[in-house]
Amino acid sequence: MKIDTTNGSIVFAKGTIRAGQLRQDFLKSSLGQISKQRVMSANWTHEDLEPETGIHCSASFDDDRLDHVFILMDHPSNKTDQPAEALELERKSLHDAWLLKELGPPPYEYAWGKVVSDYDNRGCVSEIIIRYGNRTEPRRWWQVHQPPQT
Asked: By C-alpha distance, which of 73, 59, 61 is closest to 17?
């Protein structure tokens, strides 16, 4: 996996996600062919996939335009009896180390958007979030992954 800091593209072993990509173009790509769709609301659609071994990803589309990508790396202790919070904090450390190695020291703010490593204690999940555009706060897992209101 590689994040292109010049344009926000994310290159995986099985294909590339591009900043500003339209959902219909994503679905035609090699990654779109292996994704599983989750419709979260009238405006939000998520495409979940494993773009390479050990990497889980959710590409989130707002009104059919890519808004952000959640990336979660497998952690060797996933199969232990450790409490979930401890595992997720270890995963966050793994994400932080990867970002430092690949992108240098934070903050990771670019003309096309922002990259953050986040631990969400409400959702008990650690993820790398690639957010496109100028939104000042990252969307939390639970803000985007809620079932639609009826």
From this structure: 59
